[in-house]
């Protein structure tokens, strides 16, 4: 079962990242010739956010009608939206949080659907990159693999 989940995770990450990987140069290691690959991710909850989103849409809040603003709202201020792309009827957004003191660089991939004229967050996936890795994954970072300098949270 564990092997199946790993393979499924890799398959989904390639599905969502494969076609956009070349556009994520901002998260690539400058010493490497190509952008990083996502090997695995952790699925994040979306139901509570979708309730908040539906309420904001009923109240006609501007952010709730713009998929990139919805993505930024879910991700939070520490993430920067680096790419959005239509893929199989969904809008996929890629947001990055730079490495911070004691924390690895993070990549958040969101899939948004538009149903009956309203946006809904379909899936949220989080992956990170340990300092010595050339890829994003859900691997546990050793203390020595996490930057000890940089901005504090």
In short:
Residues 1-21 form the signal peptide. This protein is an alpha+beta fold. The chain has helices at residues 2-17, 47-58, 67-75; strands at residues 37-38, 42-44, 80-87, 90-97, 105-115, 118-129, 135-136.
How would you describe this structure to a colleague?
The protein is of the alpha+beta class. The chain is 24% helix and 30% strand. It is built from 3 helices and 7 strands; from the N terminus they run H-E-E-H-H-E-E-E-E-E. The protein has helices at residues 2-17, 47-58, 67-75; strands at residues 37-38, 42-44, 80-87, 90-97, 105-115, 118-129, 135-136. The strands form 2 sheets. A 5-stranded antiparallel beta sheet has the order 2-6-5-4-3, with helices on one face. The chain has a two-stranded parallel sheet with strand order 1-7. A hairpin with a 7-residue loop joins strand 4 and strand 5 (105-115). The longest helix has 16 residues, at 2-17. Residues 1-23 and 29-33 have low confidence and may be disordered. Keywords: Signal. Residues 1-21 form the signal peptide.
Keywords:
five-stranded antiparallel sheet
Mean pLDDT: 78
Strands across the major sheet, in which order?
2-6-5-4-3
Question: Outline, from the CA principal axes?
Answer: elongated
Strand content: 25-35%
**SSE topology string:** HEEHHEEEEE
Low-confidence stretches: 1-23, 29-33
Counting DSSP E segments of at least 2 residues, the number of strands comes to 7
Largest sheet, if any?
Answer: 5 strands, antiparallel
């Amino acid at each position: 079962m564990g092997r199946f989940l790993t393979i499924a995770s890799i398959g989904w990450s390639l599905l969502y990242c494969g076609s956009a990987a070349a556009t994520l140069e901002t998260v690539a290691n400058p010493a490497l010739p190509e952008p990083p690959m996502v090997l695995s991710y952790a699925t994040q909850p979306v139901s509570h956010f979708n309730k908040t989103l539906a309420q904001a849409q009923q109240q006609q809040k501007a952010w709730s009608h713009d998929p990139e603003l919805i993505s930024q709202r879910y991700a939070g201020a520490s993430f920067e939206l680096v790419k959005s792309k239509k893929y199989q009827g969904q809008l996929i957004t890629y947001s990055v949080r730079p490495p911070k003191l004691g924390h690895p660089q993070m990549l958040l991939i969101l899939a948004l659907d538009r149903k009956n004229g309203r946006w809904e967050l379909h899936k949220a996936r989080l992956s990170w990159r340990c300092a010595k890795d050339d890829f994003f994954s859900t691997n546990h970072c050793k203390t020595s693999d996490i930057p000890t300098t940089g901005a504090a949270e």
